[in-house]
Design a protein that fits this description.
The protein is of the alpha+beta class. It has ten helices and ten strands. The relative contact order is 0.11.
């Protein structure tokens, strides 16, 4: 296996790194403290093609491969995990679902504006009573003249307060069980689409997370994505790709934690010596580096397999499970290396610690990843 990045991939990584360090890093702490959505950063990201990274050029996107996309997310997450998750959901779960399962008319309608950053996408799967068990949805879509009437609620919707469109899943045939779920492209301008207040989160404070309520919302027939009853298949297929994105976000947080810990260990003196010379601190740094590099290999492999068009259910689950665990580990160790200062909001590691925790929860909890991997092992 060739572990070398191509010249184009290296250039993409450098571009993303320069953007993250020059435009995002200087304001990330303030955005987190103020819980401010990064509108200006997203505008600049769009100018660089980062709102349509894998969207083909024919629809106005950059047309890059999956690994290039993962490299971008990793660099963005090093500076601001909130911005990273916005880009991840928009590129993978919104744009990616339309690109993979949408009709040509739907691609032409939605992707050019999304790739240009004129619109922002969301993903509406989770409900108050349907989290890990995606098959237990209650949101209903009933056929009506010219389209569909939707009723129900979706929760934990990333970018929900600012999104212009989203991929929504609803039950169209209750008697059909898991085959009675369908996917739709939701236009947030539709009457009956109500946005709830911002959730008060532990971390990712510069991203928006709200509940979306559908009160007899009407969608035209053209909003149906794929065929009726294909919704769960579409959702699970896209979550495989989305989990690689969360693994990339994990790499960014873990990498930032290691960098901050190394820097502090070289500067902080105790007992007449930099603490980085103490074996106990060195071992923390070594374990962090090991976790990061192992996570990177798993994540890059999953991205390469996905780009080659091969199934990545187990590979994505492994990458997400291991990398998210590594990010939490590295963030916690970075706080420990900083000692009391790591507990203060004046230091970046405090934010990294809060942002890392959700990585083991969203887009499939660690327990769900274990289940996915176990089933694949049993099948083999």
């Amino acid at each position: 296996m060739d572990f070398q990045l191509s010249e184009q991939q290296r250039m993409i990584r450098e571009m993303a790194r320069d953007f993250a360090q020059g435009e995002i890093e200087p304001v990330a702490a303030r955005l987190d403290a103020e819980k401010a959505f990064p509108h200006e950063i997203l505008r600049k990201a769009a100018a660089l093609g980062l709102m349509g990274i894998t969207v083909p050029a024919e629809y106005g996107g950059a047309g890059l491969d999956t690994l290039s996309y993962i490299l971008v997310l990793e660099e963005i997450a090093r500076a601001c995990a909130s911005t990273c998750v916005i880009l991840s959901v928009h590129n993978t779960l919104a744009n990616g679902t339309i690109l993979r399962f949408g009709s040509e008319a739907q691609r032409q309608q939605w992707l050019p504006d999304a790739a240009a950053g004129r619109t922002l996408g969301a993903y509406l799967l989770t409900e108050p009573d349907a989290g890990s068990d995606a098959a237990s949805l209650r949101c209903r879509a009933e056929a009506a003249p010219g389209g569909w009437r939707l009723r129900g609620s979706k929760t934990f919707i990333t970018s929900g307060a600012h999104a212009d469109f989203g991929i929504l899943y609803a039950v169209t045939d209750p008697a059909a069980g898991t085959r009675g779920i369908s996917a739709f492209i939701l236009d947030f301008r539709a009457e009956g689409v109500l946005r709830g207040p911002e959730e008060k989160k532990m971390g990712l404070n510069a991203s928006s997370t709200v509940m979306i309520t559908l009160e007899d919302a009407f969608l035209s027939q053209s909003a149906l994505l794929g065929e009726p009853g294909q919704g769960l298949k579409i959702a699970l297929g896209m979550l495989d790709v989305g989990r690689i994105g969360i693994a990339a976000q994990s790499l960014g947080i873990a990498g930032a934690a290691l960098s901050e810990a190394r820097r502090y260990a070289g500067q902080r003196e105790q007992f007449g010596s930099p603490i980085g010379r103490f074996q106990s601190v060195q071992w923390h740094l070594v374990e962090m580096a090991l976790q990061l590099e192992a996570s990177r290999l798993l994540t890059y492999r999953a991205a390469a397999e996905q780009a080659a068009g091969r199934p990545v259910g187990m590979e994505a689950a492994m990458a997400k499970l291991f990398a998210s665990r590594a990010a939490v580990f590295c963030a916690e160790k970075a706080v420990q290396v900083h000692g009391g200062y790591g507990y203060l909001k004046d230091f970046k590691v405090e934010r990294l610690f809060r942002d890392a925790r959700v990585l083991e929860i969203y887009e499939g909890t660690s327990e769900v990843q274990h289940l996915v991997i176990a089933r694949q092992l049993a099948a083999e």
